Amino acid sequence: MIETAAAEKTFAPRPPAPSGERPWLAALRRRAFARFEAAGFPTARDEEWRFTGLQPITNTAWTPAAGRLSLSSLPDGVRRLSAADSEVEAVLARLVPPEKSAFAALNAASFDDAVVLEIARGAVVREPLAVTFTAPEGGGVVHYPRLLVLAGERSQASLVQTFTGTGWSFTDAVTEIALSDGAVLEHTLMQREGEEARHVHAVGARVGRGAVYTSHNVALGAALARTDLDVVLAAEGAECALYGLFLGRGSQHLDMHTTIDHAKPRGTSRELYKGILDGSSRGVFHGKILVRPDAQKTDAIQTNKNLLLSREALVNSTPALEILADDVKCKHGSTTGQLDAAALFYLQSRGIGAEEARALLTWAFAADVAERIPIPSVRADVERELGRRLSRPGEEAA
Amino acid sequence: MSQPLLEIQNLHASVGGNEILRGVDLKIGAGEVHAVMGPNGSGKSTLAHVLAGRPGYTVTGGTVLYKGRDLLAMVPEERAREGLFLAFQYPVEIPGVSNVYFLKAAVNAVRKHRGLPEYDAMEFLALVKQKAKLVQIDEDLVKRPVNEGFSGGEKKRNEIFQMAMLDPSLAILDETDSGLDIDALRIVAGGVNQLRSPERSMLVVTHYQRLLNYIVPDFLHVLVEGRIVLSGGKELALELEEKGYGWLEKEPPPVAAAR
C-alpha cells in the first residue's frame, strides 16, 4: 500500500464500479485494481523507475474526468469495435497487462471507453488513421485513454496518435497494437501535452510473422512524461524500427523506455533515439534488447544520441542487452555531448549568425529522426518546436 | 597612399596560455596576394585563426584594422559578412546539413549585410552551377552534407568553392596545399587563381614553397617564433626552399623592406 500521511494530498485511486459491463471486462478491472493495490506505485528503489521520481504524480489527489477523443473518419477497411465486443476479449490487456506496472493496472481498472480499431485483412489504407486524446480541463484531473489496434494479415496502414492538452492534468494511457502475419503498420506518436501535465503511457506491440512495425515516438510536452514502448517480435522474420525524439527544456523530465523482445528466429530490429535537452531538463533513455534462446539469426542495432544545450541539462542513457542466443548480430551505441564548437565556428566563419548556427546544428542533430516522420503535420510540429525553443536560448536557463 | 585593406600592428596572441604571436606587423593592400611561410609552430595558422576570430585564440596586444575598422572587435560572422574568408586547413564535417542549404544561408546572410536582396532558389542554383565549374567540384558533392565523407582533396575544393560563392575581399588560405596530391593541388590552385582580382586580396599561409609555384604571391613574409623576420618578393620562396628556415631562427637578419 502507498503511504497516506497527507491523505488529501495523495493520489489514492478508487476501485472500479463496473455496471452493466461484460463479465470478462468487469473481472479484468477487478484483477487490475487488486494488482495496483498489492504493488502500489513504484519507488526510486524500483530499477525501472530509478531515474524518474513520481512525486509529481503521487502527491496530488487527481480526480477522474473525461478527456476528449478525436478520431478521423474511418476509411474502407477499418472499423471501430467496442471494448465490450467479445472478439476484443482475446487481446485487450494482453499486450500491456495490468502486471506491467501500477499505471497499466490503473488504466485497465479505470479506462472509460477504449478505442479499438480493426484493419481488415489485406486492406491497404492510404489515409493516416488519426487518434487524438486531449486531456480534460479544470486542473487536478486524471484520464485513462486506451487504444487497441488490430492490424489484420497483410494489411498496411499508418496510425497517428497524439496526446495534447493545456492544463494541470494527469494522463495514464495504454496503447496495444497487434500486427498479424505480414501486416505493415507505421505508428507516429506525438506527445505534446501542456507544460503542467503529467503523462505516463505504456505501448505494447506484438509483431507477427514477416510483419513490420515502425514507430516514430516524439515527446515534446508535459512536466513529467514517461513512455514505455515494448515490442515483441513474436514470430519468425518479424521486424521493427523504432525512432524516437525527445525535446526537453525548462525543468521538464522526459523518460523514454523501450524493450525489444526478439522471441523467434530471424527477427530484425533497428532503433534510433535522440534527445535534445535544454534548461535544467532531464532526459532518460533506457533501451532493452532481449534475444531469447530461440531467436537465432537475430539482427539488432540500437543507437541513442543525446545533445545537451545547457550546463544544467542532464540525460541518463542505459542500453541493456540480454542475449541468450549464440548466432546473432547485435550492436548498440550511446553518445551524449554538446554542440560541436568547431562546427559552430565553421558556420560563423561563413557569415551565419551564432544563433542561427546553433539552430542549424541542433536541427541537423534531430534531422535523421525528424525527417523520417511520415506525417507532414507532425514533422512541422517538430520543426516549429525546435525553432521556437532555439530562438531565445538565453531564456531557457532555469 | 590609400589605406591598406588590412593593417596588422604589433599583434600578440596566445592559445591556452602560450604566447604564439609576438608582435606581428603586416599590411595588405587591395588586390595584393601575400604569402606567409614559416616552420611548424611559428604561428602561421594562429595568425589565420586570430584574423577569422576563432574562440580560444586570445589577442593579448596590438591592433588589426580591416577596411579601416577594428577587426578584433567584430564577431566571426560579422568579419565574414564584411568580406573576410578563411579557407580551413581542416574543414569541419557537419552531418545533417547539406552543402547547398548551408551555403544558401551563408550567401544570403552576407548579401543581407551588404544591403543586397537575398537570392531565391533559382538564382542561387544558377550561381552554384557557375561556381562549381570554377573549382571542378562535382555538383553531387554540393548536395551532400557539408564535408561529410569527402576526401582531403574534395574538402579543399569545397573550401575554394565556398570562397567563390561568398566573393570575399580578403581570402585567407590556411595550408590549403596540405594533404593534396599534385593533381588536386593544381585544381585547387587553378580555382584560387581564377578568383584573383583587383578587388580581392589574399593571404596564403603555407609551409611549403610548392603551393607558391601555382599561386604566385606579390609579397612573401617569413614568420618565425611569432614574428615576421623577413619580407620580400616571390623569389624569396626559392631561397627558403634551398636554405630552409634554420638560418632565420638563429640570427635575426635585417628585414628587407617589402613595400
Any overview of this molecule?
The complex is a heterodimer of chains A (398) and B (259). By secondary structure, chain A is of the alpha/beta class. Helix content of chain A is 18%, strand content 39%. In chain A, the strands form 2 sheets. In chain A, strands 1, 3, 4, 6, 7, 9, 11, 13, 15, 17 and 19 form an 11-stranded mixed beta sheet that branches. In chain A, helix 4 crosses helix 5. Chain B has 259 residues and is of the alpha/beta class. Chain B has a domain at 6-91 and 169-250: P-loop containing nucleotide triphosphate hydrolases (Rossmann fold, 3-Layer(aba) Sandwich). In chain B, the strands form 3 sheets. Chain B has a 6-stranded mixed beta sheet, sandwiched between helices. In chain B, strand 1 and strand 2 (18-28) form a beta hairpin. Chain B starts with 5 loop residues before the first strand and ends in a 9-residue tail after the last helix. The model of chain B has no long low-confidence stretch (mean pLDDT 91). The interface between A and B is medium-sized, with 23 and 31 residues.
CATH superfamily of the domain at 6-91 and 169-250 in chain B: P-loop containing nucleotide triphosphate hydrolases
Number of beta-strand segments of chain A: 20
Tell me the number of strands of chain B: 12
Q: How confident overall, as mean pLDDT of chain B?
A: 91
> Which class of secondary structure composition applies to the elements of chain A?
alpha/beta
